[in-house]
Amino acid sequence: MRLPPFPRVRPVPASPSRAVDVPEAQRPFRLPAAGRPDVAVVVLHGFTSGPASVRAWAEGVAGAGCAVRVPLLPGHGTRWEDLAATGADRIRAAVRAEVDAALAEHRHVVVAGISMGGALALDAAAHRPVAAVLVVNPALRFGNPLAHAAPLLRHVVPSLPAIAGDIADPEAREIAYERTPVGGVAAVGRIQRAAERGLGRITAPVTVFRSAQDAVVPEASHRALLRGLTRAPVEVVPLPRSRHVATLDLDLPLLIAASRDAVARAVRRD
Fold this sequence. Notes:
Residues 1-23 are annotated as: Disordered. It is a single chain. 33% of the residues lie in helices and 17% in strands. It is an alpha/beta fold. The protein has one domain: Alpha/Beta hydrolase fold, catalytic domain (Rossmann fold). The strands form 2 sheets. A 7-stranded mixed sheet has the order 1-3-2-4-5-8-9, with helices on both faces. Helix 3 packs across helix 4 (116-125).
């Protein structure tokens, strides 16, 4: 995951804590099954973003008849200060709880996610009996080497400029935090390490969607993913016209069609 350079400027202080409502576009949502009640897909958004960034993808997958669940991950949808105070364990536990709830109601469960959500989907697949995994530019590596120092730097530089909006489509816009919390970056680092450790445990088929250009997730992340998936069938689907946030970008129809195909194959296989 590529972050802005850590600046040599006066830190931006965290504002006092206050209750903030989640905007309607960023609220979690579920789409009921229409023909395949035995299949559910859990779709996970990326770091500092929210459900709005994956809504079109989720709706497209649901069009195949399966149920879809899109949670709002802890620390998201409110203020960047909330994400700064949210640990990796809480985010990982929330994802597993969502997957467990889906498994309790459906025979086949697919986990899907973009960027940090992709890492979380892989992490869940290493510990839960999912039917398949769909990941879009999953973040297993940082682009900025200084990001690894986030646990210490968070006390000096609470936040950095936003990292959202890496999209080729000039008409698309990602709703996300206006600042990147350094404490949240530290949590992402822990999520990345947990996800990479678990790659060898995954046996469900993994479909990897890879954008032609990505200013957020480095090529090293993709290499680590393919190297670590030693037991899972893997298919890589190029997204030639998209950048990092491919769920809002020009290859969205391709992403939806290939996701539907992957879900259908996994259900038949299972």
